[in-house]
Amino acid sequence: MSSLPSLEQLHAIGAKQQPSYDDPAALAAAVERLRTLPPLVFAGECDELKAKIAAASRGEAFLLQGGDCAETFVGATADNTRNKLRVLLQMAVVLTYAASVPVVKVGRLAGQYAKPRSSDTETRETPEGPVTLPAYRGDAVNGFEFTPESRRPDPQRLLDVYHSSASTLNLVRAFTTGGYADLRQVHTWNSEFVRNSPVGQHYEAMAAEIDRALTFMQAIGADPDEFHRVDFYSSHEALLLEYEHAMTRIDSRTEQPYNVSGHMVWIGERTRQLDGAHVEYFSHISNPIGCKLGPSATADDALALAARLNPTNEPGRLTFITRFGAGKIRDGLPALVEKVTAEGVDVAWVCDAMHGNTFEASNGYKTRRFEDVLDEVQGFFDVHRALGTVPAGILVENTGDDVTEIIGGGEELDEQGLAHRYESVVDPRLNRVQSLELAFQVAGMLQKR
Ligand SMILES: O=C[C@H](O)[C@H](O)COP(=O)(O)O
Ligand SMILES: C=C(OP(=O)(O)O)C(=O)O
């Protein structure tokens, strides 16, 4: 860990996927303001999550990380936050009940506002001919609207990220401790729309069993706190150095730097260069961290990253989030897991079943197939079973709403159906029914683990 390099030192190392701001004074002012604002999370909570991820890496718990691909400021409403939380609580209860394993709940939420992009620019055809503007990089950077004003990176947005994250987290804390997450509410989390689907009915049957079990527990005088509240953690890709650096503070207990903008932060596939600024920054913070590993990652890359990011081999500190794609995971993952395990490196293996499965539908929508998502998770479990190692969790992009962004699943959404309610500003998300379907399938895999 040790002393954090300055922002200037990090930029001198070279950071990928950073916006080009045209007003350095406004950027400096936003960073200075951020440095004065209170932490959004506490270092002690980050340590608590680290211990839970360590348990997941040993197979004593299971990590469920989910939420939007990209949060938006207009989307940070009470209804949206409740819906997102609700679907994750439903998924968690399915996994816990069906597989008898504690679920560590981590939202891609309250900070997931910055996106790496394949291209710095976007070109659209207009009546006046093709127009090229900076790519949308998430609300933390610029606006989605395709105009020069909106696409200009605006440092003021970094402060908006802070305030939006603070209000989301405040609501999440209220929901998770104030009664909404009470297990007695297990039925009310199931909305009308879901209840009428086959998976919704499956869920209702399970919820009725949980009710009976709770009544029994109460009758014998057992009513632990855990029945009434849940632990829920926030996470995001720590992409924008200005924001993440300004939100890094020295913990008074340990005197170590923590990123206090989210409990867990991760390094994306496009910024995990061993000699890059992101890896350098992450090597100095004490949070539990994730690092994405795509099909181009070698076992030696994984070992070198682990040596830089977790030199003391602290359990729960490092999660490798693999995102190979359904077609590649069975061939690609074994070499990584084998070598990392053989070297005695302590990591939690989590399957991001989304980012290797994206493609453009014939009508232009960016989508994924539900069956590919499921197949990648199955491949992930298969590989770990064959190697005798632990599949510690999954990462999904999902929403609490009934959007139409991913094809397939029980509702058999097809490419034409994507237009019905496609709302994501970057990548497609599982809707509520698809999220629950996945949870039941994963619960089955977990039972066999
Ligand atoms: O969410 C992940 C990335 O930001 C995204 O997949 C990149 O998308 P792009 O290829 O459309 O830029
Ligand atoms: C950008 C993401 O994924 P990746 O870095 O794996 O492409 C993400 O999870 O939002």
TrEMBL record:
Name the residues that bind phosphoenolpyruvate. R108, E269, R270, K292, R323
Q: Which reaction does it catalyse?
A: D-erythrose 4-phosphate + phosphoenolpyruvate + H2O = 7-phospho-2-dehydro-3-deoxy-D-arabino-heptonate + phosphate
**The enzyme's E.C. designation:** 2.5.1.54
The record's keywords, sorted A to Z, are: Amino-acid biosynthesis, Aromatic amino acid biosynthesis, Cadmium, Cobalt, Manganese, Transferase
Q: Where is this region: Disordered?
A: 114-133
The entry's free-text remark on the cofactor is: Binds 1 divalent cation per subunit. The enzyme is active with manganese, cobalt or cadmium ions.
Q: Which positions does UniProt annotate for Mn(2+) binding?
A: C69, H355, E397, D427
Superkingdom to which the source organism belongs? Bacteria
Comp. bias (Basic and acidic residues): 117-127
The protein's name in its UniProt record: Phospho-2-dehydro-3-deoxyheptonate aldolase
Lineage, top ranks: Bacteria, Bacillati, Actinomycetota, Actinomycetes, Propionibacteriales
